[in-house]
Amino acid sequence: MSHGVTLLDGPMGSELEARGIVLEAPEWTASAVRDHPETVRAVHADYASAGVDVHTTATFRTTARTLGSRQEDLDWRRLVKQAVNLCREGAGPKARVAGSIAPLEDCYRPDLTPDDQALAQEHDNLARCLVDAGVDLLLVETIPTLRELAAAVHAAAMTGLPVWAAVTLGPEGDYFPGDDILRAAAIAAEEGAQAFLINCTAAPLVTPNLERLEPFAERPPVLGAYANTIFPGDPGITPEAYTREAARWVESGADIIGGCCGTTTAHTLALCEAFGKV
Q: Based on C-alpha coordinates, what's the Rg of the chain?
């Protein structure tokens, strides 16, 4: 098996819940950064111990839009900086840190995607805040629409940092039907992303869609995947089964793999062991 694979860490939200932290919408991990920083730091440290290459900040819901009326309690810029610091403290000073940029609204409600002006301004605000906080790259992730993908990747690329872009196919795998997954990869590349990934999608649905993206395997963007294990189709998939599926992703041209909602540190460790990281 290839040793050239880049290993992403696993999820923050579902891992925090597994450790007894109650996360509520819409703040999600933003509240944990504020109220349980030691646990956030510990999750990052455990992924570092497993041997991952890239660590993702707990900034999935850390925006002015999300915090809304709680702005004074949960100042989003302060929490972005704190989340980046916790990631570096847990993963180690030499770790490669990716700043997470998520959909402005619910990732499983593509119909709520805001207008173009809001997308441009708000994604720009978060991207620049993450850069100021000291991340090494920007990870636009769990995007459910082509329009938000274009806006978020553009805003991230304008900062000058490397950008990875990931889309979710949704709980039923129908967010990017037909040739839309090919269009998504093309849009990501056109807007400046160096990598295009599928995330927060049931593992068995990731594989055929990566196979459809094979034309991109020999040129930018680099391909990757990190799957969800709580959607219909693969609930509770074991670390061993997940690793076997990930091997199929690599065979389909993926150079970046990791874990999304429902995977655990055991899944991450299995990936690292299988791909020669430990």
A: 17
Domains and CATH numbers, the chain: 6-274 (3.20.20.330)
Let me know if 174 is exposed, middle or buried by CB neighbors in 10 A (0-12, 13-18, 19+): exposed
Q: What is the pTM for the complete model shown?
A: 0.94
Query: For every one of its 278 residues, what pLDDT tens digit does the chain have, with 9 covering 90 and above?
Result: 345 899 999 999 999 999 999 998 888 899 999 999 999 999 999 999 999 999 999 999 898 898 765 545 458 899 999 999 999 999 998 999 999 999 999 999 999 999 999 999 999 999 999 999 999 999 999 999 999 999 999 999 999 999 999 999 999 999 999 899 999 999 999 999 999 999 999 998 999 999 888 776 566 679 999 999 988 766 678 999 999 999 999 998 899 999 999 999 999 999 999 996 55
- Taking CA atoms, 168 is separated from 30, 196, 221, in Å, by 21, 11, 17
CA 58 – CA 40 distance, rounded (Å): 8
Residues 6+ apart with CB under 8 A from 262: 11, 14, 228, 229, 230, 235, 236
227 strand-pairing partners: 259
